[in-house]
Amino acid sequence: MEAAQRVHKGLEGVYVLESSLCLIDTEHGKLYYVGYDVEELAEKSSYEEVSYLLLNGRLPRRSEFEAFLTKLRSEMELTPEEKRDVQYAAKRTGPMDALAAFYLFASKDPPQAKDQMEHAIKAVAKAGSVLGNTIRVQRGEEPIESQPELGIAGNLIYLVTSKRPEQYQVEFLDDILILHAEHGVPASTFGAVVTASTLSDVYSSIVTGLMTLKGPLHGGAAEAAYYQFVEIGDPDRVESWLERTLAEKRRVMGFGHRVYKIYDPRAKYVKAMAARAAELAGGRVKTLYEIAVRLEQAAIEKLSSRGLFPNVDFWTPIVYTAIGIPPGYFTAVFAVSRVVGWVAHVLEYWKDNRLIRPLHLYTGPEPGQRYVPIEARG
Prior knowledge:
By secondary structure, this protein is mostly helical. The chain folds into 2 domains: 16-217 and 327-350, Citrate Synthase, domain 1 (Orthogonal Bundle), CATH 1.10.580; 221-322, CATH 1.10.230.10. The chain is built from 16 helices and 3 strands. Strands 1-2-3 form a 3-stranded antiparallel beta sheet. A hairpin with a 4-residue loop joins β1 (22-25) and β2. α6 runs antiparallel to α16 (330-350). The longest helix is centred in the middle third of the chain and has 23 residues, at 116-138. The chain is globular and about 75 Å long.
């Protein structure tokens, strides 16, 4: 097979676009958004400010940020029609499908090209309110009014728990939203850009991203890691569980990453959060943390030689549990965060749009097959 015809399965090692949004330094285990270290952003910034950074390619001046916050907050509340849409979808689908249905309903009147940034901001603002009320409806409760002054993270916790969150809970979720906001061109972002390349709208691109993230090989690792900790049940059972799991050739969920062959920089940050969460929340959260610490140590001894280390989803279940997010919704929280990354890539790609239309290498029968009437095929 000629080199020009070589198939790169999974697009491994193939550059599909240029972007100024994200740099993943795999050699040193660092992640940058528009040149800013994501750990510094998580420590010093907010999800709202990082959203401005990704959508505009720079940090805002104070007046710009205040105007951006005003716009975000004005869009966080769901209209009566949007609440009806959320109730309709939440009663009939899972959380990821409910999010997708909301954006699908929003795309029924495609926005004009000049309005795409406005709709991108709206899409970011609505995500947490949609998920929070989806969780309520699926628990048999009614949607409630958003609390925009709490910010995107605080509002989501409020909708889920029906009470004003503790400051540490808001800080934890805000940091996780920042860490999940952008990560280059994984499957969901590529899917969103493929849709956008047809000159479809922002909302339809988000739907593609959501349905791609829904797949267990992409967005489901945090939930799988949580149930893994629950299966272990006690820190003293970690080593025997790990031996049995590896003998059965099962994966240790939350270990390994398609990009990182060393410790995921986001995981280091969330690990410290998980330690604080265990201290503050105690009880079940502390037990999950103790299991995770012991499993990390034992698994690194077995798997580090293969380039497998904890990724961010190994530690996030502990923090999610501490702030009251039910385990069946961890992937959807990831999606709420990543909406801004998807739309930022879409807006960037449209600046020099080209329809994405790759080739395939034909491996079927030789051309010239003769048609045989069905009655003569035996």
